[in-house]
Write a structure and sequence with these properties.
7-stranded mixed sheet, 7 strands
Length: about 240
């Protein structure tokens, strides 16, 4: 995982390159997300948040919150307080402006933080969420372990991440788009082609499905549900912290 980096600079860590990448593309990130996915990413987020409704969480943390879309929608759908953290100051600036515009600064707190060294006490939150962030972790198990540490026993982990479609012929059509068309479109709009070449590379390197669930188990999270989205383009993973 850590060998796949946006810019492949031998002198830089994956974490440093990911921070630089998101700082660079932050102004265009939301537009590209919705444009390149035809808006389907919004539906995926809503479905992921719905998996928390039955536990009625009072306070959740959204790690790798980016421009805050998941954190905002989680508050709107669940009525809970949300703490959002991200490595990129550029992304957080966009998120903070959205939160301020919606008058939600007292409900959604945003802070710069490393997903592998979260500045919170053990057993603090009712649930932890990540949307399209875990594949960017430099050390996947360390990041998952930190997320498991800060949720309460019996708390829930919900992860929305890209995955690899398996069904013919959608798999072949999608992978052609993903590898050959998306990088050019994303690069043209964001002025950072490397960032959108990294996207398919990081997805292909990511251990999705049962393999990812084994990483969840490794850090004390029991997988409860795995929901494939839109022919397998993305997957929602739901797990529970063992007591």
């Amino acid at each position: 995982m850590s060998s796949v980096k946006p810019y492949n600079d031998e002198g830089e860590s994956k974490k440093s390159e990911v921070r630089t990448m998101f700082n660079t593309i932050a102004p265009r990130y939301d537009f590209l997300n919705h444009f390149l996915s035809l808006g389907i990413d919004k539906l995926w987020r809503k479905r992921a948040i719905k998996t928390l409704k039955d536990i009625a969480p009072k306070h959740i943390i959204d790690v790798a919150t980016g421009t805050g879309d998941f954190a905002i929608k989680a508050h709107q759908m669940l009525g809970c307080n949300v703490t959002g953290t991200d490595l990129s100051v550029g992304m957080l600036e966009v998120a903070k402006q959205k939160v301020a515009d919606l008058g939600l600064a007292d409900k959604i707190n945003l802070a710069e933080a490393d997903s592998e060294q979260l500045p919170f006490e053990d057993n603090t939150f009712d649930a932890v969420t990540v949307a399209f962030g875990v594949r960017n972790y430099e050390n996947l198990d360390k990041g998952l372990a930190e997320m498991a540490r800060i949720i309460k026993p019996g708390g829930r982990m919900v992860i929305l991440e890209f995955s690899k479609p398996q069904t013919f012929p959608f798999k072949q059509i999608y992978m052609f788009y993903f590898k050959h068309i998306l990088p050019h479109l994303g690069g043209f709009v964001s002025h950072d082609k490397k960032a959108y070449e990294y996207l398919p590379q990081s997805v292909l390197a990511f251990p999705d499905g049962e393999e990812f669930e084994s990483h969840m188990k490794h850090v004390g999270i029991e997988p409860k549900e795995r929901k494939s989205q839109t022919f397998g383009i993305a997957t929602i993973y739901v797990g529970e912290k063992l007591k």
